[in-house]
Amino acid sequence: MTTGTVRVDAWVWAVRLYKSRTQATAACRAGHVRVNGERAKPATRVKIGDRVVVRAGGLDRIVEVRQLLLKRVGAEPAAAAYADHTPAPPPPSEFVAPPAVRDRGAGRPTKKERRQLDRLRGRG
Fold it and tell me: What is the CATH number of domain 6-84?
């Protein structure tokens, strides 16, 4: 634990939002990490109270910095280092359309079948 500021790539790695420091740095470079609404470079400094948005696995995690860490720590101390403000995922819908499956060896779909498949997939 330190006082002052810490690099954002090191912090998101230390609190276990990314599995490796290299992944955290690459995510920052790709624009998947934001600090207080601004796109963060790997060397961007975070301080206590900053809001960090991390995109990992197709989902955005919104966390608030509570404690600054330089080194990777265990799961419990890592979870205590931030407050998670990520909204709950939406409930699964009751009706889920079955996947469009064609018999193997049925050949190319006809124009009519292609339109039906496109409508089913939401591209109509």
Answer: 3.10.290.10
